[in-house]
Amino acid sequence: MVESQGTMTLAFELSALKKLKSPGEVFENARSWSKYVGVVTDEPTYVVTNYTRKKRIRQDFFSGPKGKRESMKSVKQHFDTDRHVLLITDVLDEIIAEETGWECIRIEEAAEKAGWELGEDELQEAIEIVEDKRENWP
């Protein structure tokens, strides 16, 4: 069995992932130096599923119906790595990270250090808005 590189579990809060210009590429880049990479949010499961499918993102974990706090506790318990890091946009997520024993880094800081580009692809965003009107239903 070939083991993944890295000794870190990295979670993107969905809002942080959406701040990136090329979230699929960023996810793959993060996978090269993290053992596990996933998405956490309090949004409904279908929102995460639709977003990650459109961006061709393969997650090792996601929140599902549990919500962010419970998911982070569960991930920390089941994904044994030296570090558990949450990439955030909202100061309230700092509280959740502290309560669940995760480190947190603002997406802007992480992007600068990793060389990731912030910002949306405007054409792709317009296409997704039209698609969401057709697909985003519970």
Strand order of the largest sheet: 3-2-1-4-5
Instruction: Quickly give the CATH architecture.
Output: 3-Layer(aba) Sandwich
Radius of gyration: 15 Å
CATH C-level class is: Alpha Beta
Provide the residue-averaged pLDDT. Answer: 88
N-C termini distance: 38 Å
For the sheet with most strands, the description reads:
5 strands, parallel
Describe the overall structure:
- There is one protein chain.
- The chain is α/β, with parallel strands linked by helices and 138 residues long.
- The protein has one domain: 3-Layer(aba) Sandwich (Rossmann fold).
- Helix content is 49%, strand content 17%.
- Strand 2, helix 3 (45-54) and strand 3 form a beta-alpha-beta unit.
- It is globular and about 40 Å long.
Topology summary:
Elements: E1 8-13, H1 14-17, H2 23-33, E2 36-40, H3 45-54, E3 61-62, H4 68-78, E4 83-88, H5 91-100, E5 103-106, H6 107-114, H7 122-135
Parallel strand pairs: 1-2, 1-4, 2-3, 4-5
